[in-house]
Amino acid sequence: RSYVSSMSVAANVFIGNFRWNADNATQPFMDRRSIASAFLNWEQILEFNCELLTRLEVKSVDWNCWSTVGEVFVRLFPFLRLYIEYCTGYQNGIKIITDLCSQNSMFKAYVCDLERHPDLKGLSIYDYLIMPIQRIPRYNMLLASLLKYTWVTHPDFDQLSVAWGIVNDIADRVNQAIRQSQDLPGVIKVMRQLKGAMSAMSLVKPDRRYIRDGTVY
Fold first, then answer.
1. How far apart are CA 65 and CA 87, in angstroms?
2. The pTM is what?
3. Which distant-in-sequence residues (6+ apart) come within 8 Å of 10 by Cβ?
């Protein structure tokens, strides 16, 4: 509930106000495209978590030791793929906000004013932007804990095991996506340094990694 509440508050306070500014201000701080690049698929992630919370609350009614919840996770956890897109673009989103704050004092003051909203509970825009990044490991810990305290003969054990496998797979893919997004600037940097015939060659490929550069002796 806390996570859904935080995501919802951020959507209302930050995304909502940024969009209002983009649509109504004579000289808006950000256009719609920049807002989308900064917050990515935030609202889709929020929608997914609202649905997950609703189904878990239904399951919690008349709960007993033989109740099951695994099928909820199995049905909805494939949508955790939404986090791959967010995690891939997270660094760029942070850069958009940071650059605007450093280049435009009025925008920085505007953000600071929004951050004083009582529903934000003293947290900054950056505190909220990192929340989806931190979420996948917590899903993993939740499923691991449920499995630890569910005996193997329980009717929910198999479904929880499947759900845990889904979370682990998504976590691996999220980590891979983050590494790729972090590698890309390095690959582009090397490509721009090439001269002659090689300068026309594109080094940017999905399986290409930037390791390091330096002088060869």
1. 37
2. 0.78
3. 42, 120, 125, 128, 131
Residues of the chain falling short of pLDDT 50: 184, 187-188, 191, 195, 197-206
Q: Which of 78, 182, 82, 183 has its CA nearest to residue 132?
A: 82
Q: Which two tokens stand for residue 1?
A: 């509930």
The whole-number pLDDT of residue 91 equals 84
Q: CA-to-CA distance for 56 and 72, rounded, in angstroms?
A: 7
Question: What is each CA distance from 152 to 85, 147, 165, in whole angstroms?
Answer: 35, 9, 16
DSSP at 29? S
Q: What is the pLDDT of residue 159?
A: 93
| Conformational region of residue 62, where left means phi above 0, alpha means psi within -120 to 50, and beta covers everything else | left
**Token match 């682990």: residue?**
168
Residue 214 CB coordination number (10 Å): 5
Q: Quick one: which of 22, 61, 55 has its CA closest to 39?
A: 22
Contact 143, 69 (CB under 8 A): no
Fill in the amino acid letter for 167: V
Q: What is the pLDDT, as a whole number, of residue 186?
A: 54
pLDDT, residue 77, reads 85
Beta carbons of 142 and 108 less than 8 angstroms apart: no
